[in-house]
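User: Before I run my own analysis I want an independent prediction to cross-check against. Here's the chain; please return only the structure tokens and, at the end, one sentence I can use as a sanity check.
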Amino acid sequence: MLRALTDAQAGEVLDITAKALLGRQEALARAGTDEAAKAAVPPADEVALGAVALALPDVTDGRLLIGVTALVRATLRVTESATALATPPKERTHKARSGSEEMFADYNPPNGDDRTLHDALSGVVGLHGWWYQERRSALRQIRAVNHVLSGKPAEGRQLRGPERLDALGDGWRSDERTIPGSAWCGRPFWASCGRSPYGPPRPR
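Assistant: Structure tokens:
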């Protein structure tokens, strides 16, 4: 029976199982802090197994049904991850900048400070320079570099003089603002790459 399963039928199995699991999540949400109500909600494995059994009534062998259910749940997890990856992130709400604030200065993830990153990576790659506990310059710079490489202008501190916009030569021109200095040497990323001591370069 499983060999004859069409793509449409397989999609229906996934859909039925996903709706059943969503219904379980909604039941848990309705239960809130009521332990008795939460205990009355069946486990996810049981809900998924029942949904697959309903979608595939010809599969009567218990062990086969458990195996199919495991594959269905794995497929749903992969689908969810792929959907999340393909969904464009929500645009950050940009606040007005004074020209003296670094890009992503408000980005402060837990355990994202430079010292924690240094301790996590020091056994994998060679790291040099100063890494300060309370700074989050490494992660902020990664986000800033991704921002400018995607074609968007830098949004950090103002360049010290407008005459630096045309200081690069060879058809390159700097942005009016900068990206953060790096965690390892205190210079902008582009200076670390040997490309620009100012803002990120762009063709004219």
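Sanity check: Residues 7-31 form the longest helix (25 residues).
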